[in-house]
Amino acid sequence: MKKKVLIITYYWPPAGGPGVQRWLKFAKYLPEFGIKPIIYTPENPSYPILDESLLDEVSPDLKVVKTKIWEPYQIAEKLNPKSKAYKAGHFERPEKQSFLTKVSVFVRGNFFIPDARQYWVEPSFRYLSKYLKENEIDTVITTGPPHSMHLIGLKLKQTNRNLTWVADFRDPWTQISYHSELKLMRFAKKSHEIMETQVLQLADAVIATSFTDAENYKKLGAGRVEVITNGFEEKEFIESFKIQNSKFKITYSGGLEMARNPENLWKVLSELIKENPEFAKELELEFVGNLSQDVENSIKKHHLSDYLNKLGYVSHKESIAIIKNSDLLWLTNFPEANSKGIIPGKLFEYMATGNPILAIGPDGGDVGRILEETQTGKYFLHSDDLALKTYISEIFAEKKYRPADQAVKNFSDFKVGRYSRKNLTKNLVKLLDELA
Known about the structure:
By secondary structure, the protein is an alpha/beta fold. Helix content is 40%, strand content 17%.
């Protein structure tokens, strides 16, 4: 008989974006290791983006339990359409925010603690207390954000100390980069901190998705902390072939807001265009996802608009096909030091393509550590110019000598392959076995 594990998650197909991928893949592979996952998720959630194609990845054998949720976002979105962006953790710069937006952010931070899904905590606790007993389940995993999911786990653990509870933090709580943008009053700030501390200290194990986050959780009082990063789905890259592009495609996948805008990249590309006619002829800046108007204006300021190709939001399957056929993949992080623990999920899919990666972020960023360990790309600061320019020039020169229909096999190397979803699931199973 397989061991049963209940996974409490807000994001589940047809939700789109990176938040849903992690536990969709864990749930897929856990049965191969003798564990039966059961998903607990809202029946009527309010998702910022949808990707119906992900429904095809949910096994018909997977048990998915749903109950109704009431969340004020459903009202807020009618009053202010931009609420969807704030729900996803994206904020306009303060000087760009309308009065209605400022009020929405203030209310969110101070009256919905830890988030607007707080109203699902109590009914879920009541429902699951009975469900766990009736179905003889003794292990629960909560994944956040939204961090209200952890409060469900906290209440279950407080009433049943024999329960094994694992709190998975896909992103930090009070230490996430946009936490300061919530305009928190003293009582609200304290409430967030108290809740976070309770979760970290009472959970039997805490999972961090980055090395820096793991250290921070230990400082906040967490007992056992394991690092299990995000990863890539091996089958999406096996037997994959890269075509020879007529253009030199520099591709970014995902949303990009002004706070992470890489001014130094635009500056360097502008210089290369002026200095190298061949580069000017072949360059294409390809964006997959939401590109903020502020960033687009920055690109325009550097006279790069003619090279811009905006594809908008596409399905996860389509995004994989696009990054496979890029010449240079790039990602960018916030320049502030408190962002060095952010490892975008797309990094691992970038690595699996075998294409070179260019990353920009704060000094000592965890992304840089992974790129160095796997030898899959280069990491730069927001202040770097010359080294960044040299790297792009080298990749452009190498493009001419790459064979067409080049097979992508980098993932088979252990350095990259350890980040496959199946191998990461092995790490999760090891943790659960040890806790048992």
